[in-house]
Design a protein that fits this description.
mainly alpha; elongated
Length: 150
């Protein structure tokens, strides 16, 4: 409280976002992305959402394989409460600050360098593929289910 920080609020140019939304804010400067460039500048679109989804599906696949190994019934549908709880865990424990920094860098918001975030996409995908093979190998994943379909 009382820190008087200067804040830049970056908003895409969606028509639902009011152009005068920051008029009464003293320490907040509202900056709108130019039209049709959100996917090139928005850090969420530059990898954060993809990373979150990959970690989410990794958790879900681990749960399915665990249930299969214990000969338990695999829950076909996930209710909204469970999905939100799992997404919370993914955001809190799996999506790294490094991933977020790298996505901001991709959008041109930083000149710092952390190197390539090898922790993320390729490692997660390789881990998912390995877990899928485990499920196929023990005969518990049947029919023509593929990891890419999942």
């Amino acid at each position: 409280m009382g820190q008087h920080r200067k804040i830049a609020l970056l908003i895409d140019s969606c028509p639902a976002h009011s152009k005068d939304c920051g008029e009464n804010l003293k320490n907040v400067k509202v900056i709108f992305f130019p039209n049709n460039c959100t996917s090139k500048l928005q850090p969420l679109d530059l990898g954060i959402i993809k990373n979150l989804k990959m970690h989410y599906w990794k958790r879900m696949l681990k749960e399915i394989i665990s249930a299969l190994e214990k000969n338990e019934t695999v829950q076909e549908n996930i209710d909204l409460r469970k999905a939100i709880a799992e997404l919370y865990k993914v955001w809190k424990f799996d999506v790294t600050a490094k991933t977020i920094r790298n996505c901001f860098k991709k959008g041109g918001f930083s000149n710092q360098t952390d190197g390539i975030d090898s922790d993320d996409e390729y490692v997660i995908l390789a881990d998912l593929k390995e877990k899928w093979k485990t499920g196929e190998g023990n005969g518990r994943i049947t029919d023509d289910a593929t990891l890419s379909n999942f």
